[in-house]
Amino acid sequence: MTSQGTVLFDLFGVIARHQSAEARTALVATAGAPSPAFWDAYWRLRPPYDRGELTGPAYWREVGTALGTRFDAARIGALIEADVSGWSAVDGEMVALVEELAAAGRRLGLLSNIPPELAAHYEAHHAWLKHFEVCGFSCRIGHAKPEPCAYAWCVRALGAEPADVLFVDDREENVDAARAAGLRGALFTGVAELRAALREHRLDAPAEGRDRTGD
């Protein structure tokens, strides 16, 4: 199945919010580690966790080792809970836009760098995921942005031509990588700006002639 007018969304920083200052403080307090060292280990060790190569407990054990400490099972459980909670807030205005596009007959996809526990949380608590024909969760597909294989996986799953897909992300390096893979790209800076980009790419109105009876 091919489509002219598919929107492939990033999740965090676009539809879902980044960690708040309060969530970041809570996570550092749960770890009981100095903030700069904690965040260095958190992000440096994150890619294998996002790709599903590590479970949550294995990831946090590695973080603890990098910090020169050992997190016990109870601490690891608390860290996973705090981490999931910190990434769980969504932008209601963006969710409304997703629902608007779905109602207009647009094909929608999602490509997110997301670890297993957080992916499971979103599936259990966010019914609007049903609007996405394809959910390219990095922990399930084994590839994370900006790796070219992440975009290729989504394009194949959508059955679309790369040039027919508009990728929306808040990180310029991810948008650049999508363009290098042949997709169109839009850097997300806000809802109003995204609406303007959708109009520019003729994606703000129903797809002409699309049969929606199977939606």
Helix and strand arrangement:
Layout: E1 6-9, H1 21-31, H2 35-44, H3 46-50, H4 56-66, H5 73-86, H6 92-103, E2 107-112, H7 116-125, E3 134-137, H8 138-141, H9 148-158, E4 165-169, H10 172-180, E5 184-187, H11 191-200
Parallel strand pairs: 1-2, 1-4, 2-3, 4-5
Label this structure with key terms.
215 residues; alpha/beta; Rossmann fold; 5 strands; elongated; disordered C terminus
Sheet with the most strands: spatial strand order: 3-2-1-4-5
Query: How many domains make up the coordinates?
Result: 2
Give the biggest sheet.
5 strands, parallel
CATH architectural label of the largest domain: 3-Layer(aba) Sandwich
Q: Nearest-angstrom radius of gyration? A: 18 Å
- Shape type: elongated
The CATH first-level class of the largest domain comes to Alpha Beta
CATH superfamily of the largest domain: HAD superfamily/HAD-like
Structural class: alpha/beta
Tell me what portion of residues adopts beta-strand conformation. Answer: 5-15%
Number of helices: 11
CATH names the topology of the largest domain as: Rossmann fold
Helix content: 40-55%
**Arithmetic mean pLDDT:** 93
The succession of helices and strands, N to C, reads EHHHHHHEHEHHEHEH
C-alpha end-to-end distance: 14 Å
